[in-house]
Every structure is written in structure tokens, then in C-alpha cells.
Amino acid sequence: MREIPKWLKDLAAQKKAAFHTQKAQLLKQTLEDNFCTVCKEAKCPNRGECFCNGEATIMILGAICTRSCRFCSVPKHIKPKEPDINEPKKIADFVKQRNLKYLVLTMPTRDDLKDGGATHIFSVLKEVKKQNPDCLIEPLISDLQGNWEALKIILSAKPEVLGHNMETTPSLYTKVRVGASYPRSLELLKKAKEFAPDILTKSSLMLGLGETKEELKEVFRDLRKVDCDILTLGQYLAPTKEHLEVQSYPTQDYYEELKDFCLSIGFKAVLAGPFVRSSYKAGSLYQEAIKKRAV
Q1: Can you give the pLDDT at residue 39?
Q2: Is 1 part of any domain?
Q3: At what angle do helices 118-131 and 87-98 cross, to 10 degrees?
């Protein structure tokens, strides 16, 4: 296994320090007492920073995934529970109590549900909007197994951003994204724009899995062909020794080069760096994209 470079360890140590502050721990406890969070389940390195800023990503539809992607630490190989009918109100109440202005929702892939969980996602979005009309919402969804009617259900709740992650390059899909399909993921983002042109679309890729720069650029071009608006790029970090090994640790200069390329081909907002994750600074990215769209 490749050794993590010192500069990355130092950056990780800074982020870990923020996690142990009183402010971060208070929000962590409140969240974990009431919800599943991708912050915890995916062992996100930005938890401390986000919690200190009053930001978090809530995971709906439980914490058990029905797929076996080899990069992810979300639990799998366990039968998921049925969606919690009280979840929409619980989340809406939480948003109201904390006066949140931007909410990111993520979820495990639920291939066991006929609509991939779309009806439940719709219920959460509608209830949050009902109680918090000024709150902007960004759901990060699965590929729904290509069920475009289910996609329409989610979009009908009118989120501000619809996220779906490509994760990696086509050549690595069978190794990294078990059960997923590159063309299907791309088609979801394309259909989202066809069904709801005013809703921004967003995707994310991990670096360090063995992809080449040219392969990445091809994915970026593909995303722009389907009018994807927002992109995040971050370092893959193996959650355990049982997960895929890291093949490389690109420098910040490399991320900046990719960001410049992505902006040059038409993305409205891009965030790139080793600890960037799909929900990191989501509200700021949304505002940046909206300003670009207005020009």
C-alpha cells in the first residue's frame, strides 16, 4: 500500500483538530442522536470543519447499501430496513430548529425498493420545503437502476441541485463501482436536465484510483455534453485495508490544473483538492453556479 505523503498527513491532522473542538462535538452529538450522516458512515475527513461551520449532510433511507462498491465504508451485505415514515418530519423539524439555509441529503443505493427510494426522497424534500420555504436543498441520489419515472418523482419536488456522482473513469468501473454503469450514470444527469432544465446538476469524482489525466478529461467532457453544472474532485482514501488500495496522491497543483480545465469547458462551479468531497462547501458552490448562470 502506498504511504500517505507527509503534506497530506499534516493537512489531515489540521482537520482532525477541528473535529475535537466543543462546537464540532455538540453538532456531531445532536446529529448522531437523531440521524444517519454520511459524515460518520463515510468517515469524512471534513467533519470537524463542517461541524464548526454548522454544516452537515444527512443520510436518508437508512445506513445500509444494497451494492458492494469497493471504495465505500457505508455498511453493506445486510438487509436494509423499510424507509422510516417519520423521517421527513424529523428532518424538516431539525432544519427549522437550526434555521438551516442549505441542506444536503445523501442516501445509500436502495435497489431493494421498486423506485429506488424516490417516493421517500420526494416526501423528505416536500416536507422540508413546506416547513422551511427558504431552505435550499441538494439531494445526492443513486442511479435508480435507470428508472427515469422515479427520477421524475424526485425532480418534481424541485430541489435546487440534483447530485449524482460518476465517482471514477469508465475503465475502472468494474473494479470500483460494482453494480453501476458509466453510461447509466451519465444518462441520469442527461435526463435530469431534460426533465427539469432549471435544476442545477452536480457530480463528483475520486482521484488516486489509477485513472489517467486524459481519462479524467474525457469524463469531464462527457459531463459537459449532458450540461452538468457543478463538479467536485477529491482524493480517494481507503477506509480500511479491505478496500481498494490508493494508487497515487495527486498534489494540489494537479487539482488546480484540472479545475482550470473544467472551468474552461463550461462548468459553472468546480471545487478540487485532496479533501474535497461531493457535499463539501455545497452551499457556496451553489451560489457560485447561480451567479455564473445569471451572466
Answers
A1: 62
A2: no
A3: 30
